[in-house]
Amino acid sequence: MAGNTLTAQVQGGAADTVKRLFVKLGILPFLLVIAIVVFTLMSDNFLTPRNLMNVLRQSVYLMIVSLGQMMALLTGGFDLSVGTILALSSVTGAMAMAAFYAAFPEMAGVAIALGCLAGIAAGVSVGVMNGVGVAFFNVSPFMMSLGMASVGFGVALYLTGGVPVYGMPQAFGDVFGFGMLFGIPAPVYVAAVLVLALYAFLNWTPQGRYFYAVGGNLKAASLSGINTTGTLFLTYVLCAFFAAVAGMLLTARLDTGEANIGASMPLESIAACVIAGVSLRGGVGRLENVVLGALFIGLVQNGMNLARIESYLQTVVLGALLILAVIADQIRLRYVASLKD
Amino acid sequence: MSNGHAETQEGTRPPAASPLLQTKAVSKEYPGVRALDGVDFDLLPGEVHVLFGENGAGKSTLISILAGANQPSAGQILYRGEPVTLHSVHDARAYGISAVFQEFSLIPQMTVEENLFLGAEPTRAGFTDRARIRREALEILDELGFALRPEQRVDHLTRAEQQMVEIAKAFRSDLSVLILDEPTASLTNHETDHLFGLIGQLTQRGVGIVYITHRMAEIRRIGDRITVLRDGAYIDTLDAKTASEDDLVRLMTGRVVGGIFPALDLGEPGEPVLEIHNLSTAGETVVDASMTVRAGEIVGMAGLVGSGKSELMQACFGAGPIESGSVLLKGRDITGNTPRRNIRAGFLYLPADRRNEGLMMMRSVRENVSLASLDIAPFSNGVVLDRSGEVRAVTALAGRLNLSPPRIERAVDHFSGGNQQKAMLARSLTRAYDLIVFDEPTVGVDVGTRASIYQFIVELAKSGTAIVLISSDLPEILHLTTRAYVFYRGRVQAELKADQLTEENVLAHFFEREAA
């Protein structure tokens, strides 16, 4: 009897600690631990430095898109057009690059620079439209980005006629797709620079703070003298910029401009953010967690590949994880009220 | 039916009449606020029982509990002597308890008849019986004498007409208790007469009416008993026919608070800081208002909620549209400027609704305090935030305002109402402001915090800041301002100088007085 009570108390104490950790850190650490344990048991190749580097390289594209998605979520909206932006920038960038390279075959470097610029500009233009709609005309982010997703995808298909774009300089893929420096893939460096830059922007500048304020309480932000319209506009432009950079990196990896890439990006990027504790109500979210969230999704996909889980089933798992994360967030909110700190 | 509760009544009714609806020590707590504190209330059949009290006194919370829209944290509700639990408005309606709230529960895109029968549509063979809905809707509207057509869409109606639909909705089912929250606020005299006629008929049938109003004339005309609430607590129950207005105001505001106001030893006011000339806003919420505020004085703006006092200041600050007129800050035209420009020019408005308009509830105190001043030192150098400077400045402000607990990284949501208010007020110290508008700075704030907020406001004025204090709380206007404007229905009704600032004078413009 006495032993039982004691066990119950110990269990109660452990449960309380887990509860506190859950409230403080969210669901992500728990999911990470579970995923690592499960996949290590399922495949010997999972927990090897080589494979983990693979995971990192594969996750980079989603990670960059998630940075932008996080901005949209922070301000209380979201961006469903990130996939389209990826595709449009890939197609436009590849076409511009291939055209310039065909005209001036000796100027590969200039072709790459111009192509990337064109691709990113095309992607950002979608973000500008999103921003105009959401910030100036008060269109709900849902409708605006859903509409632009269709518009952008249509344009990308129209430009290419549905076939992949070839003819980019070899160097583009060699450097930005497959390049390595000190044993680390080139896209990882790009992602690292973007993450550091956005971290500094969000946490060390007044404007960075304003994204949180606009999502935290739009009216209060406005009454505190914050340019809420400009902040919302900037949000969607930045979100598109990140997606477009990811689009160009993916183009380099694939060596073709494709209109069909990025279809899973809206769901995956929102999942990465939500699993990382970014609130769907806006105003709450940490960049470092979003980076981990994107890595987690890459980890799960990689693990499922190694464990030979069919790709159709993988989508099921991903959707389920997203819903689980949202439910966990709701439960966490309830606990927050009872624990306070 | 039970009759064991007669001893709790202080009214004039014979004790034989047992209460229709009764609350025993009902309390309601919200995070950080105790909205109701052990309130006993009883409603007899056939009486009109008026609830009286300031904004935030707990009237609305009490009726929302009676109507099932809210559940008490503690205490008991008895219906005809039997304890009942009202989980929802639907539950309450099953007992014949219906409420008409100030915030309409109408669906704007639906028609009048659809709204009337929402949630209780008569059906025939599983389909809604539209013919019956039309017939019964017409019957109800006829009986009430409301000139409405059942097929009109609610969003095409005026506010008064929507109010009528809301009232008609309560009449849909068999009534035993009807709760009315300032029902005449948007009705014309004729419509009001009609409503009172109906109330008369209902009370004859033994229906009990809970009635919230600020208007003395209405209390006299239809009230039987008055229960006064203050700060969520039950104060007293009086006979409506004999209670004097002065008694009511005394009970409502509570004279005992005299000690919480600091001495108003302000110097002579300086130059005009804010000048408003003939300002009107769209929708006539403010009509042709003019006023002046000088450096180092505290100017009060009194009037009921919705009288236009807040709307005027919001329009000046750039948070609401201006239709005509002009606003000058230190002699310079700021008409139509954004809040951003006004804040940088030295004009701050602190809203009344801290939860919805003032604070980012899930963010820390530190971020909430510094929000409006992130472009200047010590919070940043204009480009990059100075995090340690921010922490130092906010810690100092938290100390000065006695934030409790003094943990500036904790989310604002987890502080009490009074401390949330301090976090918002601290914003006024993060920049050198020439003019600060406090809109209802002590709503939902405990007495201790009130005192420190008053002290804080007076200190600001002493340092030469021009202060505007918008308040529906009469003692605040009387004890904390050097001059006051009284608003009534969007107009400046009166300007009262220091020597004219008496309860009598303010009230003369505050309430709609009986013909005198």
**Alpha-beta content class of chain A:** mainly alpha
Distance between the termini of chain A: 35 Å
Number of helices of chain B: 17
User: What's the average pLDDT of chain A?
Assistant: 87
Q: Which radius of gyration of chain A do the C-alpha atoms yield? A: 22 Å
Overall pLDDT score of chain B: 82
Helix-and-strand structural type of chain B: alpha/beta
| Mass-distribution shape of chain A | globular
Instruction: List low-confidence stretches of chain A.
Output: none
CATH architecture of chain A: Orthogonal Bundle
**Poorly predicted tracts of residues of chain B:** 1-16
Radius of gyration of chain B: 25 Å
Shape by Cα distribution of chain B: globular
CATH class of chain A: Mainly Alpha
Put simply, the count of helices of chain A is 14
CATH class of the largest domain in chain B: Alpha Beta
Which topology of chain A does CATH recognise?
ABC transporter involved in vitamin B12 uptake, BtuC
What is the count of structural domains of chain A?
Answer: 1
Order of helices and strands of chain A: HHHHHHHEEHHHHHHH
Number of strands of chain A: 2
The percentage of residues in β strands of chain A lies in: under 5%
Kindly describe this structure.
- The complex is a heterodimer of chains A (about 350) and B (about 525).
- With about 350 residues, chain A is mostly helical.
- Chain A has helices at about 1-25, 30-40, 50-75, 80-105, 110-135, 140-160, 170-175, 185-205, 205-215, 220-225, 230-255, 265-275, 285-305, 310-340; strands at about 180, 185.
- A two-stranded antiparallel ribbon of chain A has the order 1-2.
- In chain A, helix 5 packs antiparallel against helix 11 (about 230-255) and helix 7 packs across helix 11.
- The mean pLDDT of chain A is about 85.
- Helix content of chain B is about 30%, strand content about 25%.
- Chain B has helices at about 60-65, 90-95, 110-115, 130-145, 160-170, 190-205, 215-220, 245-255, 310-315, 340-345, 355-360, 365-370, 385-400, 415-425, 445-460, 475-480, 505-510, and strands at about 20-30, 35-45, 50, 75-80, 80-85, 95-100, 125, 125-130, 175-180, 210, 225-230, 235-240, 270-280, 290-295, 300, 325-330, 330-335, 345-350, 435-440, 465-470, 485-490, 490-495.
- In chain B, the strands form five sheets. A six-stranded mixed sheet of chain B has the order 6-9-10-3-11-12, with helices on both faces. A six-stranded mixed sheet of chain B has the order 18-19-20-15-21-22, sandwiched between helices.
- In chain B, strand 21 (about 485-490) and strand 22 form a beta hairpin.
- At the A-B interface, helix 9 and helix 10 of A face helix 10 and helix 11 of B.
